[in-house]
Design brief:
heterodimer; A: 1009 residues; alpha+beta; FAD/NAD(P)-binding domain; Arc Repressor Mutant, subunit A; six-stranded mixed beta sheet; 22% helix; B: alpha+beta; Gyrase A, domain 2; six-stranded antiparallel beta sheet; 11 strands
């Protein structure tokens, strides 16, 4: 296909490389373009008018802009399923060879589709709030409506396959971050080049220069592109400046933290081979210079959405930067001088300018004069009130306006043309300044919002300040740099990078946003405000008529600015129309606030490397490899990967658990308990400190002994438990739950540092230092005896709740005779580098006892058989020790109080009908009550039933031959022997008897043998 | 070697390394990598990542303003404790500041117990000394791009002006944490916890891939 709108290379002063032709696929067709093109410029060069269907009315839509503000040309990109990317703006996507894309909007195809008929018929009834009003009822059907509506509207889709590319994060710290590399940003950067400051300059476009890339205003008597080139070289060579093209500063967060989305290889290929595709820069900047420029505002008039209707500056950009002239004959509609340049550019490209329609009555500015000299027809005091044509502009209707632009006062004339460029002035790109919560301020002189007051260390320069002359923009950039230097305490005064700049005087623009039609707005052909969301002037007016007065409400009711473009083109017009309709000024009406991100960003860039295996850290014990090699299934406990159970070939999970549980009670089982939190406590007040954080007494715990303790919050509720051993008079080892280790250490430090700093005590985490293996079962003593010579294991010497040091398998060890199974148990601790070695020695020596490794699930069953609680499973932060029937673990007589003592004495905590932890034995011995089941007294009571409490732990006990459960029952401790019922979701009811939670060896003899 | 008279001890101290006569195998936190993942150490001029296993790690806590404490330390270590956010390398030791009352002393693995004993003999009053050699390992990240890899891994500013040679910072590293010490222009030592070592190794490997 020929590029019918491409200017010949002889006329081109633009940025495309004619020597590098590229082919790409858009929809079902293949097109050609050149290196340096965007998809949008290449589509325009090929004469593609329609790039999508509108959201609500399904009207054909064309390219409107040339940058981030584009509302229509939204692409679904990707040559393969895995590389699909939705919501790519054709105006920002650089062309590469083999690029594949299609229009996002317009199911089943952008050229012809179902909705165009619905739109045509339904158009008139699809008023604001149409979806709310029509599809809200019945609510249950919304899920179905939504699918169809979304598909028809279609804002792209996510890939169905994993993304093959690599994304990255990087942290940057700098003295100055310059946002935008247009004239102001470059002038600022040039002034900072070679200083001691660390500077980052980022721009969303493929190359630095901004508007200078398509401008012909001279700097130092040269085309501005030459100046850009010179400055860029200077920045690259300066050494103190990081230049980031293709990098959108998407978010400006608190404390001058900004996020930059860099597209490293999106311009090269569908998939980045061996390189990072996109990188998120997380920047902490001392000072930020916003040089974000301005977006041109289109004017609102009837059928202003017909393909061929663009904003004026975009037309200039396409002509000058991309050597593409998007039509044959142009009508320019403007309220200001600046847009006249577009007519000059069009004229110079050799195509017809039908007329310039200026809403002002007597424009006389410099550019106006230049246009007059070219002999172009200028129709003053008039507006384009309507576009004729459906698939492409055919003609425009032009009429005289009254002085304020509110009424049509003359005859309507029709001008034939295929392109309409409109300019209603400029809107500063204040998005980033808004992100930090700064409210923008309306400026009547520039007819736009300016950045408001800010508490950030932020400076602004150029277009964002409503300053549009080239000379002023450069000057402001330079001034901002000097300002930043001074604020950062630098004495240098840099030389400006420019001397003589062409200064074109402009006359004031007219404050006009919405061109009237001969019919009232509500009856006129649609006048679009927000093209992406199909919000019309009539819709905005209707919203105000229906009582929506706040601009935030108007926004939500009409969906103004809700699209992926965040209303970059439409918002100000929408506010102006709202204001007029409410008979208020724009400042009185106010503005909505922009939020991050400035343009859509991929999930890949947000995730960076934190995905797949690296999504969350996995913590391993020293014996992890052994577990893997021996077929363990793993369970994540916090970030730890713990063996869950070890199935043998052909075994079900329950069979494996039964085997593991029986082994631990009949011979010997072995558990990797390394993940338990371990805190080394040293200091002469260690004992006193323990007494204050645990509920029980620690005064008399002798060296060589261990004791179980409950830890409560100030509210008296249990939050952790564990065994603490007295290693020396001033030395203790505290163990915590696996998940609670970090929190407990913080808790101890917090109380030590803020409340009891007078106590001489230090805490050190030793969780990772010790590898811990528990052998449990009647044969555990015999097994240990085979591996140690220097520990006296005699029953009366090394008692239950004692610890000893010695060697196990030749490795120095501390052995604790404590038990979480109720069996004879030894917890062997060795320096973690020897953990695997000792484990292997135990396995080898234990072979004759059929030593059986067991995982967390069997551990849970074994402890439940004994009624031992697991904090976090049997407690939930709302139970105190008495609720657990653990009064034995509370000492109310300690000299110094303990954390939780007052809390658990509150009136509510001593109610007799509190939920209390009890055991539950099902009538049907085979039946395992699902955890979470609620107990009721009367299974036949009408819903809502009175609920007594829930099951916290429930298992099949192979050792006992029946199911066991623990759970809460209101006043349960006094109801032992009574029956309660557990209604299930399938309608059946499980009957259970309340019993002691100690199902096995109630006397506790087994652990003492 | 062990606590013979348990009851009389105020502090339990023991040599955690086996006697030389014991034929025992020690495994560093990253021992499994070569064996099972075919992840060999990366080692180029631009980026290199190596584990320095089996060092002695002693965590010391005490009051830096206490003259007796400082003098005792100086007597044994033959140097002052590093100032805030600093690390010191001597022939036999490296010491990093960890927090206002906390220092990490690294020495050869088999010297840790002797050093602990010497320190305990010299120190008086309130302090804490803890052998945590099994709980940590040292990763050495070096090369021209080490700095870039760190920029991808920690939010701390690792530029020369903010992180000169001889600085030590305990901070986040990816989604875990590390003590980061800058040994020279292109060499950084990361002291990481045993259980996180595998994650951190893989993260750094991944972040290094564009520089290999």
């Amino acid at each position: 296909m020929t590029q019918k709108n491409r200017l010949s290379s002889s006329k081109n002063r633009g940025r495309i490389n004619y020597k590098k032709p590229l082919t790409f696929t858009y929809g079902k067709k293949t097109y050609s373009g050149y290196e340096g093109d965007t998809v949008a410029s290449a589509l325009l060069a090929n004469g593609v008018d329609i790039v999508g269907r509108s959201f609500k009315y399904s009207r054909p839509r064309g390219i409107v802009a040339a940058g981030a503000e584009e509302p229509n040309a939204i692409l679904q990109m990707g040559a393969t399923e895995a590389t699909q990317v939705p919501n790519v703006r054709a105006t920002q996507q650089e062309l590469f060879d083999g690029l594949v894309c299609r229009a996002t909007n317009g199911w089943p195809s952008e050229d012809f589709d179902l909705m165009s008929y619905v739109g045509k018929v339904g158009g008139n009834i699809m008023s604001p709030g149409f979806y709310y009003k029509t599809f809200m009822y019945p609510q249950s059907m919304w899920k179905n409506y939504e699918k169809v509506i979304r598909k028809a509207a279609g804002f792209g889709r996510a890939p169905q396959e994993p993304d093959p590319d690599v994304y990255d994060h990087i942290h940057r710290h700098c003295d100055v971050l310059i946002v935008g590399a247009g004239p102001s940003g470059l002038a600022a950067a040039a002034a900072l080049a070679g200083t001691d400051l660390r500077v980052v300059i980022a721009d969303e476009q493929s190359e630095f220069g901004g508007s200078l890339l398509h401008s012909s205003e001279l700097i130092d008597e040269q085309y501005p592109q030459m100046w850009v080139e010179r400055i860029c070289t200077q920045l690259r060579e300066a050494g103190n400046i990081v230049c980031l093209p293709r990098s959108t500063v998407n978010g400006y967060h608190d404390h001058n933290f900004l996020t930059i989305h860099e597209r490293c290889s999106d311009h090269l290929a569908d998939q980045a081979s061996h390189q990072v595709r996109q990188r998120m820069h997380r920047v902490r900047a001392q000072w930020v210079i916003l040089a974000t420029g301005a977006h041109e505002r289109p004017l609102v008039f009837s059928n202003n959405d017909v393909p061929g209707s663009l904003i004026a500056s975009a037309v200039s950009t396409y002509i000058n930067r991309y050597a593409v002239i998007p039509g044959q004959s142009l009508v320019l509609l403007t309220t200001n001088d600046y847009a006249y340049q577009t007519a000059i550019d069009w004229f110079n490209a050799g195509r017809e300018v039908v007329a310039i329609v200026d809403t002002r009555t007597n424009p006389q500015g410099v550019r106006v004069q230049r246009v007059r000299e070219l002999g172009i027809n200028i129709i003053t005091g008039s507006g384009v009130i309507n576009i004729l044509g459906r698939q492409r502009v055919n003609a425009v209707e032009v009429a005289k306006l009254d002085e304020v632009g509110e009424k049509i006062i003359g005859q309507v004339q029709t001008l034939n043309c295929d392109t309409v460029a409109s300019s209603g002035g400029w809107s500063p790109v204040i998005h980033l300044s808004c992100h930090t919560g700064s409210r923008p301020i309306w400026d009547e002189n520039i007819l736009g919002f300016l950045p408001g007051e800010t508490i950030q260390q932020q400076l602004t320069a150029g277009g964002v300040n409503g300053c549009y002359g080239l000379k002023d923009c450069l000057q402001q950039g330079y001034d901002a740099a000097c300002d930043a230097l001074e604020k950062l305490g630098c004495k240098d005064t840099p030389k400006p990078s420019f001397n003589k700049v062409e200064d074109i005087a402009e006359e004031p623009a007219m404050a006009l946003f919405h061109i009237p039609h001969s019919e009232p707005t509500s009856r006129a052909p649609k006048q679009f405000v927000d093209l992406q969301n199909d919000v019309t002037a009539a819709g905005v007016e209707m919203a105000t008529r229906e009582g929506f007065e706040s601009i935030e409400h108007v926004k939500r009711y009409t969906a103004l600015g809700f699209g992926t473009d965040q209303g970059k083109l439409g918002n100000i017009n929408g506010m102006a129309i709202t204001a007029k309709s409410l008979n208020k000024s724009i400042p009185e009406t106010g503005t909505t606030i922009f939020r991050p991100n400035y343009t859509p960003i991929t999930f890949g860039a947000i995730a960076g490397r934190h995905c797949g295996e690296l999504f969350d850290p996995k913590r391993y014990t020293a014996m992890h490899q052994w577990h893997i090699e021996n077929g363990a299934k793993f369970e994540a406990v916090g970030q730890w990967m713990r063996p869950w159970y070890y199935p043998k070939l052909g075994e079900s999970m329950q069979q494996a658990l039964n085997r593991e549980c029986v082994a631990a009670r009949t011979s010997v089982g072995i558990l990797d308990a390394s993940t338990l939190g371990k805190i080394d406590i040293q200091g002469s007040d260690a004992r006193e400190f323990l007494g204050r954080v645990y509920t029980n007494a620690w005064e008399k715990l002798a060296v060589g002994k261990c004791r179980y303790g409950l830890m409560c919050g100030e509210d008296g509720m249990v939050f952790d438990d564990g065994v603490t051993s007295c290693l020396g008079e001033n030395h203790f080892l505290m163990t915590t739950t696996t998940g609670g280790a970090a929190r407990v250490l913080e808790w101890l430090e917090l109380y030590h540092q803020t409340e009891w700093s007078d106590l001489d005590v230090y805490f050190t985490s030793v969780t990772d230092h010790w590898a811990t293996m528990t052998i449990s079962g009647p044969n555990s003593r015999k097994l240990l005896a085979e591996l140690t010579e220097d520990i006296n294991l005699e029953k009366d010497n090394f008692k239950f709740m004692d610890w000893r040091s010695g060697t196990v398998a030749g490795i120095p060890a501390r052995v604790y005779r404590i038990s979480f199974t109720g069996e004879l148990s030894y917890e062997i601790n060795v320096q973690a580098n020897y953990g695997l070695f000792v484990w292997e020695q135990l396995m080898e020596a234990g072979e004759k006892y059929n030593i059986t490794p067991y995982g967390t699930e069997a551990m849970h069953i074994l402890r439940a058989e004994k009624g031992f609680i697991i904090t976090g499973q049997d407690t939930d932060g709302s139970v105190h020790p008495y609720d657990l029937n653990m009064a034995w673990a509370v000492n109310m007589k300690k000299t110094f109080s303990f954390i939780g003592k007052r809390g658990m004495a509150r009136e509510d905590c001593i109610r007799p009908d509190r939920k209390q932890l009890v055991g539950l034995k099902t009538k049907d011995l085979e039946c395992v009550i699902p955890e979470g089941s609620q107990a009721v007294n009367d299974p036949n009571q009408a819903i809502p039933m009175d609920m007594l409490g829930h099951i916290t732990s429930s298992y099949w006990s192979e050792n006992l031959g029946h199911s066991i459960a623990m759970g809460y029952i209101k006043g349960g401790i006094n109801r032992i022997g009574e029956t309660v019922y557990y209604p299930q979701t399938d309608g059946c009811v499980i009957e259970a008897e309340i019993c002691s939670p100690v199902f096995l060896d109630e006397a506790g003899e087994r652990q003492h043998v | 070697m062990f606590d013979k008279n348990l009851e009389k001890n105020t502090i339990a101290m023991m040599d955690l390394l086996p006697d030389a006569s014991v034929n025992a195998r020690a495994e560093s936190p990253l021992a499994h990598l070569d064996q099972f993942h075919s992840h060999t150490n990366i080692d180029t001029d631009s980026i290199s990542l190596q584990e320095k296993p089996f060092l002695g790690h002693l965590l010391l806590r005490g009051n830096a303003d206490n003259t007796a404490f400082k003098d005792a330390i100086k007597k044994v270590l033959l140097c002052e404790l590093p100032k805030t956010l600093a690390c010191i390398y001597t022939n036999e030791l490296s010491i990093c500041w960890v927090s206002p009352d906390e220092w990490l002393i690294l020495c050869e693995g088999d010297k840790a117990y002797k050093l602990e004993k010497k320190l305990r003999e010299a120190l008086v009053g309130h302090y804490s000394l803890c052998n945590i050699s099994g709980g940590q390992t040292v990763l050495v990240l070096s090369g021209h791009h080490a700095h870039d890899v760190l920029m991808k891994s920690t939010s701390y500013d690792v530029a020369d002006c903010s992180f000169p040679i001889g600085k030590a910072v305990t901070t986040t590293l990816a989604k875990s944490q590390a003590i980061i010490c800058r040994k020279d222009k292109t060499t950084w030592e990361l002291i990481v916890r045993r259980s996180f070592a595998d994650y951190i190794w893989h993260y750094l490997h991944d972040a290094s891939s564009e520089f290999k």
